[in-house]
Amino acid sequence: MRTRFITGILSAVLLSVFLGSSLVLAAEPIKIGGLFSVTGPASFLGEPERNTAQMVVNEINAAGGIKGRKLQLIAYDTQGDSTKAKELVNKLIKNDKVVAIIGPSTTGDSMAVIGDVERAGIPLISCAAGNKITDPVRKWVFKTAQNDVLAVERIFEYLNKRKISRVAILTVSDGFGASGREQLKANAARHGIKIVVDDTYGPKDTDMTPQLTKIRSSQAQAIICWGTNPGPAVIARNVKQLGIKLPLFMSHGVSSKKFIELAGDAAEGIILPSGRVIVADVLPHQDRQKKSLISFVKDYQKHYRAEGDHFGGHAWDAIMLLKGAIERGGATPAGIRDALEKTANFAGIGGVFTFSRADHAGLTKDAFVLVQVKKHDWTLVK
């Protein structure tokens, strides 16, 4: 009798331990990596991306997580340094054992880590815009930032409507600028546009007067600047200082209030392609993205006392795309990758995403609208 009693107690204890262990295992968080340029010259990209990613993860966890499991975001600051990005991506893969990674913030950093995630078999959703990140398609690499070629199409279509056929291009000498320059040159002739000046500037340059003086004496009817802050703001100020009256176009690389702050009065009248988030309040009610956009803008304002912008939106899309993929495909790298590739008609911040085996960027030119600076704010170009 006593033996059976003791055996019963031991069985109960073992069952309790087993069930307790199972619950602990079931509750293990799903580890997601993040690589963002939180400091350094690209901090205007990385800080809102990091903030947004953490905000969305917190909200998913507060709602119960994904199938009862919480998300854990392990985010590192690349400082916009490709060497550091490579070091940190391997830390995420080998030490932190993440099942997916979002970021990096820049094209250069993204290109630097592609080989690492491909070899490890870890899905990466880049927040950078360069076409080469997903063209050619790589098995494990996706992106949320709109492709440069889509932005080029928007600008060239606008120029065609205004009968502008001769342009000067001024592009930054980094990964983003090189990608934009390549797409501008490759698509100009198809739109009947001639590039009469093709010049560059360095990411740390503080005066572009020599390049702009050359443009002023050319036959250019418009200037297209391709870069990320602070260079484009310097160019805007130089254009005003030199009294150049040509219309000035920027890339989506400066699609935030930060550009207006940096350029000041010189920003007035500048046009650029952008995701819809910076003009969310004036979009028509039937716009498929409007509900998500308004919610994101208000949410970011509540948490960080600043407007949610185009760049934070890249991280919002990445986390929500991962959430959907994990719900459908499970929390393994292979399951996430396969489910991401089957994502269709996801209305996010950057656009409506449909991925496929042949397309890991997932957006069309409709992801962009043209916006213009008027009275120190963004307005929608009709």
Characterise this structure:
The chain is an alpha/beta fold and 382 residues long. It has 2 domains: 30-146 and 289-364, Rossmann fold (3-Layer(aba) Sandwich); 149-274, Rossmann fold. The chain has helices at residues 2-26, 43-62, 82-95, 107-120, 148-161, 175-188, 209-216, 231-241, 257-263, 290-304, 310-329, 333-341; strands spanning 30-36, 71-77, 100-102, 124-126, 141-143, 166-172, 194-201, 222-226, 248-250, 271-274, 346-347, 352-353, 369-374, 377-380. The strands form 4 sheets. The chain has a 5-stranded parallel sheet, sandwiched between helices. Helix 5 (148-161) packs across helix 6 (175-188) and helix 8 (231-241) crosses helix 9 (257-263). The longest helix is centred in the N-terminal third of the chain and has 25 residues, at 2-26. The radius of gyration is 24 Å and the shape is globular. It starts with a helix and ends with a strand. Mean pLDDT is 93; it is low at 21-25.
